[in-house]
Amino acid sequence: MPAVLLLLGMLALPDSPRWYASKGRFAETRRTLELSRSESEAAVEYASISVHAARDRNSKVSGAVHYLRDYPWMRRILWIGCGLAIVQQATGINTVNYYAPTILEQSGLGVSASLVATIAVGVTSVVMTIVGIILLGFVNRRTMLLTGFIGVASSQAALSLVFLLPSSTGRSYIILAAMMVFVAFVQCFIGTCVWLLLSEIFPMAIRGFAMGLAVFVLWTTNALISFVFPILNSVLGSTGTFGLFVLVNLISVYFVYRFVPETKGRSLEELEDRLGAGKPDASAAGSTAAVATH
């Protein structure tokens, strides 16, 4: 049923105004913009999109691979996008989604109690995703990500330590609480934010190719971690496994701080101009995340 609803919704969904502009269909560009913007806002954005589309159409370079070959800053943005895909999955969120009943059963809860507790994890995921969507309208992207990864590392550190406690019902519920906090930080601050950033940072010339590659990297990382988690858990135990995730997420904090540009409050065309000029603005410590043009 969800797939059918998605299909029906897509039938009524127009193509993006930037795609129309890239094909020279400027009337449809303007009409699509006016579906979600006031007339004045649509006029301003239409002018910017038209200029960029004309520039791209007149460029001697064609095809994403050629743009990536000729423009180092686009290659750098592509690697940052793939990095975002990796760190989103490296939180270990899907190990909880896939193995929550097993983890909770190992903590001492019975099979039935573990399945019921897993519902609580799922509800937390849905509620905090909604909260995260709301926060995206008010909080900078980098702030969201840094908060999320620090929270994830902290909750996983708590998980790894709690597994050292003697087995008891109390310990099982502390583990459940830590898992819910972990899921809350991922879904509220990281999950939706990474998908939004991926749609914002890639320039139009490579957006389709770059987005496809980033999504491929994301789900490949998901599959790898999902397959490896049971092996790690049997070799290192729960404490060692979640301790390893703590280390990985601390590396993710550094990656976001050092490389990820701020995108909030700017049009896609403005972002493209700034990134191409090596001016990601509010990224890490002034210019440390500068997207170099050479």
Provide structural commentary.
Pfam families: Sugar_tr. It is a single chain. The protein has 294 residues and is mainly alpha-helical. The protein has two domains: 12-58; 70-276, Growth Hormone, Chain: A (Up-down Bundle), CATH 1.20.1250.20. 77% of the residues lie in helices and 0% in strands. The chain contains twelve helices and no strands. The protein has helices at residues 2-11, 17-22, 26-33, 39-58, 64-70, 72-90, 93-106, 111-135, 141-162, 169-201, 207-259, 268-276. α3 (26-33) runs antiparallel to α4, α6 crosses α11 and α7 packs across α11 (207-259).
Structural class: mainly alpha
Residue share in β-strands: under 5%
Shape: elongated
Q: Rounded to an integer, what's the Rg over CA atoms?
A: 22 Å
Largest sheet, in brief, is: none
Q: What is the residue-averaged pLDDT?
A: 85
Low-confidence runs (pLDDT<50, min 5 residues)?
282-294
Our count of domains comes out at 2
Helix percentage = over 70%
- The CATH architecture of the largest domain comes to Up-down Bundle
CATH topology of the largest domain: Growth Hormone, Chain: A
Order of helices and strands: HHHHHHHHHHHH
